[in-house]
């Protein structure tokens, strides 16, 4: 089963490599380089500092660490089954007379001490396999910590990008409302002069009210984005208002394309943890098959019994016993057979989940990569469109100065330029989030 799954992994990775030729030519990430530098590369030192604050003491990471520690202790407890068990017992009792006809009857005390050593011999390796399964689960829980770090880094990147977009939207909404006020005042003046109709004034008033609604919505989005970012950073948004990170258009993601490779998909924490749990399920299948074998145990006990504590361990009061037992369930109503089927179905279910997760991971990588490529292509296009809009506004201002263009048309041209500028300003945040999504899809641990 493991061989087939490994071959399937290779086929999926080859398919991704065919779609991403630039990634396929790059070298895979080495153990010592890069996850932290890659996350810092997409956001700069400001993002690296915020990421360090977020990862330190995050509840999700702490919970993952606690689960991993519990799994380690469970494996340690399972290890005890390989060693002999020593049990010591001390009893003391006293008989008091209850017959009223003989009140002078003396009381009688009895003391006993027992020490026993028992050892369940692991002839068929069942205890060793149970220990192996417990240790594999501890390893899987350790990888879950990496998965929590990746998820938290992506959550922070999304919160920062949303915060930047919200700030841009709020500024644009305020400027648009100011412009609509100016347009409404000019149309009212033109109406009083008989140069504009009542319908024109009503339309300007409606546009003004719509701008007020848009500003209210932009304020709501900004407050919600700030609250989400504060929650990710584990700070109180009412006490500290996190400032947005400023991203630049001159940043190049070419090094990111060269360093992140399709081979690192197999290093995704969720895929690694699932592969380990798949191995543990195979061990449990073997355990269920060996449940038919008998259990052999030996024990040795020494018992002392006396009415006086000082002579309790005297040689004449000691008894020793050596015993061996062979136990085996002959008829259990089909319980062991059901357990074997359950273990086999668990293994098959994990194998199916692994196939589905591989396809999902490949799709996430492709979507993130296509999104990043699209944004990279749009950056020069948006800059060209912004430059064209600026030239148009320059011509409109010249026409307005010559008296061939109305003030309202000039204000509308300025509004179009503002919208184009807002789109360009949001592009770095979009590229930052797309880069973070690509790193998370590849399983790069910060």
First-residue to last-residue Cα separation = 32 Å
Shape: elongated
Biggest sheet layout: 4 strands, antiparallel
Radius of gyration computed on alpha carbons: 37 Å
Please state the average pLDDT score: 77
What helical percentage do the residues reach? 55-70%
Strand line-up across the major sheet:
1-2-3-4
Summarize the structure.
The chain is an alpha+beta fold and 446 residues long.
Account of the protein in words:
- The protein has ten helices and four strands.
- Helix 1 (2-19) packs parallel to helix 9, helix 3 packs across helix 5 (126-192) and helix 9 runs antiparallel to helix 10.
- The protein has helices spanning 2-19, 21-24, 35-55, 59-79, 126-192, 198-233, 254-259, 269-289, 335-402, 407-442; strands spanning 85-95, 108-121, 295-306, 318-327.
- A four-stranded antiparallel β-sheet has the order 1-2-3-4, with no helix packed on it.
- The chain has 446 residues and is α+β, with helices and mostly antiparallel strands.
- The chain is elongated, with a radius of gyration of 37 Å.
What topology emerges from the helices and strands here?
Blueprint: H1 2-19, H2 21-24, H3 35-55, H4 59-79, E1 85-95, E2 108-121, H5 126-192, H6 198-233, H7 254-259, H8 269-289, E3 295-306, E4 318-327, H9 335-402, H10 407-442
Helix pairs in contact: 1-9, 3-5, 3-10, 4-5, 5-6, 5-8, 5-10, 8-9, 9-10
Which terms would index this structure?
alpha+beta, four-stranded antiparallel sheet, 446 residues, 4 strands, 10 helices
């Amino acid at each position: 089963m493991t061989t087939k799954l490994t071959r399937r992994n290779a086929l999926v990775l080859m398919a991704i490599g065919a779609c991403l030729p630039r990634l396929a030519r790059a070298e895979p990430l080495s153990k010592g380089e890069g996850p932290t530098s890659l996350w810092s590369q997409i956001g700069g030192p400001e993002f690296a500092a915020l990421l360090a604050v977020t990862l330190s003491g995050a509840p999700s990471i702490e919970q993952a660490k606690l689960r991993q520690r519990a799994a380690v202790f469970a494996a340690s407890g399972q290890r005890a089954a390989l060693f002999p068990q020593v049990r010591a017992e001390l009893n003391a009792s006293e008989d008091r007379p209850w017959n009223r006809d003989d009140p002078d009857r003396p009381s009688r005390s009895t003391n006993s001490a027992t020490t026993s050593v028992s050892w369940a011999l692991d002839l068929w390796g069942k205890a060793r396999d149970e220990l192996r399964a417990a240790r594999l689960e501890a390893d899987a829980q350790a990888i879950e910590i990496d998965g929590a770090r990746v998820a938290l880094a992506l959550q922070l990147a999304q919160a920062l990008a949303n915060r930047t977009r919200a700030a841009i939207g709020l500024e644009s909404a305020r400027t648009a409302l100011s412009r609509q006020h100016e347009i409404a005042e000019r149309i009212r003046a033109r109406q009083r002069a008989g140069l504009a109709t009542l319908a024109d004034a009503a339309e300007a008033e409606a546009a003004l009210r719509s701008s007020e609604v848009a500003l209210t919505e932009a304020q709501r989005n900004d407050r919600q984005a700030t609250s989400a970012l504060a929650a990710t950073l584990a700070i109180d948004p009412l006490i500290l208002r996190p400032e947005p990170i400023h991203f630049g258009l001159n940043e190049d993601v070419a090094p990111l394309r060269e360093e992140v490779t399709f081979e690192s998909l197999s290093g995704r924490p969720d895929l690694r943890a699932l592969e380990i749990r798949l191995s543990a399920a195979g061990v449990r299948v073997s355990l269920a098959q060996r449940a038919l074998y008998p259990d052999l145990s030996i024990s040795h006990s020494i018992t002392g019994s006396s009415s006086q504590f000082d002579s309790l361990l005297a040689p004449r009061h000691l008894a020793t016993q050596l015993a061996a037992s062979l136990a085996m369930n002959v008829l259990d109503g089909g319980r062991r057979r059901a357990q074997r089927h359950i273990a086999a179905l668990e293994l098959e279910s994990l194998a199916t989940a692994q196939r589905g997760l591989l396809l999902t991971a490949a799709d996430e990588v492709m979507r993130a990569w296509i999104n990043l490529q699209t944004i990279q292509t749009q950056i020069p296009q948006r800059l060209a469109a912004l430059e064209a809009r600026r030239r148009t506004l320059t011509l409109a201002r010249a026409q307005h100065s010559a008296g061939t263009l109305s003030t309202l048309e000039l204000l509308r041209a300025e509004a179009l330029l503002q919208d184009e500028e807002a789109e360009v300003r949001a592009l770095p945040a979009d590229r930052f989030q797309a880069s973070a999504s690509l790193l998370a899809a590849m399983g790069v641990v910060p």
